[in-house]
Write a structure and sequence with these properties.
about 150 residues
Length: about 150
């Protein structure tokens, strides 16, 4: 892994209905949704480091801080720029800023951690199986605690 502060990436979009708070469900207005702005910032962080990771490595998001400063209406062109500002072992910190043609519309930080993809997916699968087992056990306990149903002829 050869990650150093200063790596940059950008994502550009034109706000469409699928990007809006109304469509995503985070509000009822047709402007760029805050969750969509965050997803775009995260996508830019992934793009910034993807060519610098060792084979079998990926990065996963662990922390975000976001200020959504202005609404971007349908048709607005938004550019999200990210810069890797800190590398602390496997921990990566990015600053991002989003602009439309008129103003800064958002800014914040995204933290990611570099992980071994296979180990990460194996751990995720173990958690999924544990969750499934816990749900089955919960159903069995619930059924065992139910009073017998009265059967009438």
């Amino acid at each position: 892994m050869t990650l150093v502060p200063g790596l940059r990436s950008q994502v550009h979009i034109m706000v469409e209905m699928e990007d809006t708070a109304k469509k995503i469900g985070s509000g009822d207005v047709p402007v760029l949704a805050t969750p969509r702005l965050l997803a775009l910032a995260e996508a830019a962080t992934v793009r910034a480091v993807e060519q610098h990771l060792a084979p079998g490595e990926t990065s996963v998001g662990t922390r975000v801080e976001l200020e959504h400063l202005a609404a971007s209406p349908l048709g607005a062109h938004v550019e999200i720029g990210v810069e890797l500002t800190e590398v602390d072992g496997r921990r990566l910190v990015f600053a991002f800023e989003a602009h439309d043609r008129h103003a800064v519309v958002g800014r914040g930080t995204v933290e990611r951690v570099v992980v071994d993809r296979a180990k990460f997916l194996a751990a995720s699968e173990r958690r999924r199986l544990e969750e499934r087992s816990d749900q089955s056990e919960g159903r069995r306990r619930h059924m065992a605690n139910e009073p017998p149903h009265e059967v009438r002829p």
